[in-house]
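Memo subject: From amino acid sequence to discrete backbone structure tokens
Keywords: amino acid chain, backbone geometry, structure tokens, three-dimensional fold.
Body of memo: The sequence and its backbone structure tokens, given next.
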Amino acid sequence: MALRTLTTIGRKISEWNLLKITTVFATNTRNLKQVTQSETADGTLVIAGTYVPSDRASNLVTVKLDHEGPCSACYMCKLNLDVKHTDVLILSQFLRTDGCMLPRRITGLCKRQQKRIGTMVTMAQKAGLMSNINPSWSHKDPRKRYRYKKWNSYWDETTIKC
């Protein structure tokens, strides 16, 4: 009697756990996997995953592999992105929480783009577009600098040498 009750409780728990399984999983940047459950004639449960095309596939940026430029490994060079010092949302992705620049092995940029992004971050901070995360006594805070250096700086994007 007790064994029969435990098996029915076990079946109910396993059925309840199967209902908790979500039916769509993200597997790749371009594909979604839909999980289907079916039971065969002999009582075995078959769980199968099939790829479903994403409805957001048109929003993905595709990179051609036959790119011939100064750098073939960097995605900024491949996509030919022109990031300026006013694009603070893009630049903030390359900063740590303490305000320092992320290293190249994490950002995946080439030397040229890493230096360029670092220059853009400095320019955005000096222009007052991005905050400087420094101690209160630091002279890197633009308001605590001497004379003309405490005012915001403005640059022409064509003069950037990187």
